[in-house]
Amino acid sequence: MAENKEYTYEEIKGHDTKKDLWMVIHDKVYSVGSFVDEHPGGEEVLMDVGGQDATDSFEDVGHSDEAREILEKLYVGNLKRTAADPKPRLSQTSTTGTSVSSDTGT
Questions:
Q1: pLDDT digits 0-9 by tens, 75-98
Q2: How much is the pLDDT for 4?
Q3: How far is the C-alpha of 101 from the C-alpha of 89, rounded, in Å?
Q4: How far is CA 75 from CA 22, 28, 34, 102, 106, in A?
Q5: How distant is the alpha carbon of residue 88 from its chain centre?
């Protein structure tokens, strides 16, 4: 894995070309330009989410363990969130599906 460098969305969004393609998945930043031509789903899928948060797109497909291993090799750092950043759409909760509610039923 790469060093724990942090990148802002402002820095990431500039990496949106086929040869220089970054994306965010679960607040980790990946440089996927070297994988574009090998991606089984085609380059368009990656290009559509280049320079932005691709968490929903990645998880919606149900990627294999092998795909996740490939992704880890493309890791370049972590997302440094600011108040102005878009909020992640997928919750990063555990697989138990437990939700917290303040409703006590009274």
A1: 999 999 888 887 766 544 434 444
A2: 82
A3: 19
A4: 10, 7, 12, 37, 48
A5: 10
What residue type is assigned to position 54 of the chain?
A
Q: Around Cβ 102, how many Cβ atoms within 10 Å?
A: 4
Instruction: Please give the Cα distance from 77 to 81 (Å, whole number).
Output: 13
Give every CB contact of residue 58 below 8 A, 6+ residues apart in sequence. Answer: 25, 71
Buried-state track 22-45, b at ≥16 Cβ within 10 A, e below 16: bbbbeebbbbbbebbeeeeeeeee
Secondary structure of the chain as H, E, C letters: CCCCCEECHHHHCCCECCCCEEEEECCEEEECHHHHHHCCCCHHHHHHHCCCECHHHHHHHCCCHHHHHHHHHCEEEEECCCCCCCCCCCCCCCCCCCCCCCCCCC
Q: Which two tokens stand for residue 29?
A: 């930043």
Provide the whole-model pTM: 0.78
Q: Over the stretch 6-19, which tens digit does the pLDDT of each residue have?
A: 999 999 999 999 99
